[in-house]
Design goal:
This protein is of the alpha/beta class. 54% of the residues lie in helices and 10% in strands. 40% of the residues are buried.
Length: 460
């Protein structure tokens, strides 16, 4: 058993039986569910919209090299600079070079899962740079020393009372402060930081190839503020976020909003096309886009699972998943949790260390059903399981158990020998830890169906 699996099982066991944790999580997801049902009413034919989105993303992923080069060329035409990072270390090195050159003391960062993926805040702090989350949920998690709990809603596992307690302990706010009081307090802090910051960092919801733009969507306006004041800005975006045309946003922005938060469209939708132009009165002096691989080409190399690169990070599959609803986001111990994380993480980061995530599923198919770009998520979990076997990433004990089981199951005489007592003993010995400490293993009947049939028919 790997250390990752051991930690996953221990944390999952703890969270699954934490009634208060489950109450908060299910309440917050239920609010999301209501809004999404309302939001979907804007579509006359939602399935058609999803099919079109799936087709565009498939075209983009299958022609990734073409569209990324097109994006790079068009972005550079307006004075932007494009950097390619094969892994997290390369991305951090490039960011630190830029930060050092502009003498960065303060960095303001908009909500971005890819910056969580490369642990940007940690590396900036090590370099003596104050890195501040400007999204309220991310700011709460940063203050609490926790990673995001959810792709869209970073503090989904916290109640308003939890947040009030956190701000009382960390910032000295009065006990029981209201959400309005807390938001006003955070607003005062952040608005003093934006003008100070030498560097602004964003992610990107989409990369638009034909105009060379980074498309970002948000509700709080903090992303706009993070690029409005600093003279140097960096957008760090996974290479899979590419779409061919500006017109495609007419489809993707509403789909992301409806499935992410239940809104018809998110409040602020922005295109970042490079530094300030000669005829423009505001904007940054320079803008960089870092195109991050970090295991994505490993996924691209898989003929079946590559479809998962189409994910637009709406979080719908997390909210629908019975496993996520029981154990929560932190149990996965990965940047991307839930069903989509269980597909992409083992391929991007290695089956040996993360194959257990692909087994942590009921295979009910709800994730596939709710996906706005029609990724066959639960089938890809099975593809990962298959690959873990064919690539021999299973343990020697697992291999021995399956060989032992195969030998017996292919021989009827062996299947009928030993009696139920012996068989039940072996089942308990081999599968007790896998089955779980809180479930009793089913017991085999004294006689198999084959034995009873032969007795009934008088066969020897």
């Amino acid at each position: 058993m790997t250390e990752n699996l051991r930690d996953f099982l221990a944390t999952s066991d703890k969270k699954a039986f934490d009634k208060e944790h489950k109450r908060k999580l299910l309440f917050n997801i239920s609010q999301y569910d209501k809004k999404v049902v309302e939001g979907k009413h804007i579509y006359a034919d939602l399935e058609l919209a999803k099919e079109r989105a799936a087709s565009i993303k498939a075209k983009s992923i299958n022609n990734l090299d073409k569209y990324l080069i097109e994006f790079e060329a068009n972005f550079m035409k307006r004075g932007g600079k494009v950097l390619w990072a094969e892994n997290a270390d390369q991305a951090i090195d490039e960011i630190l070079k830029i930060a050092k050159r502009v003498n960065t003391k303060t960095l303001v960062k908009a909500k971005s899962m890819v910056t969580e993926e490369i642990h940007l805040n940690h590396h900036m702090e090590q370099a003596g740079i104050e890195s501040i989350e400007t999204d309220l949920g991310e700011y709460i998690q940063q203050l609490d020393g926790e990673p995001p709990y959810h792709i869209v809603t970073p503090a989904m596992h916290k109640s308003k009372e939890d947040v009030a307690k956190l701000f009382h302990e960390k910032k000295g706010l009065p006990e029981g402060s209201s959400p309005s009081d807390i938001m006003a307090f955070v607003r005062r802090i952040l608005r003093a930081k934006y003008p100070e910051a030498e560097l602004g960092v964003t992610g990107g919801n989409f990369l638009v190839a034909d105009v060379g733009a980074v498309a970002v969507t948000e509700n709080e306006g903090n992303q706009l503020m993070s690029v409005a004041f600093p003279k140097t800005i960096i957008s760090i975006v996974g290479i899979e976020k590419i779409i061919p045309n500006l017109a495609d946003l007419d489809l993707f922005f509403p789909l992301l909003a409806v499935h992410g938060t239940g809104q018809k469209v998110t409040v602020y939708n922005t295109l970042l096309t490079g530094p300030r132009q000669p005829d423009e009165v505001d904007g940054p002096d320079e803008m960089f886009v870092i195109l991050l691989d970090n295991g994505r080409t490993n996924l691209l190399a898989q003929p079946e699972q590559r479809e998962a690169l189409s994910c637009i990070r709406c979080g719908a599959c997390l909210n629908a998943c019975p496993i996520y609803r029981n154990i929560g986001g932190h149990a996965y111990a990965t940047t991307y949790s839930g069903p989509i994380g269980s597909v992409i993480t083992p391929v991007m980061k290695g089956l040996n260390d993360f194959k257990h995530l692909s087994y942590s599923s009921s295979l009910c198919g709800r994730c596939t059903e709710v996906c706005p770009v029609k990724i066959d998520i639960h089938k890809h979990l099975l593809h990962n399981r298959r690959d873990s076997i064919t690539q021999h990433s299973s343990s020697k004990m697992d291999d021995f158990a399956m060989l032992f089981w195969k030998k017996i199951s292919l021989n009827r005489n062996l299947m009928n020998k030993g009696g139920s007592g012996v068989k039940n003993f072996f089942l308990k010995s081999f599968f007790k830890s896998t089955w779980g400490a809180r479930r009793e293993l089913p017991k085999l009947a004294p006689k198999s169906f084959n034995e009873r049939w032969r007795e009934k028919k008088g066969l020897k």
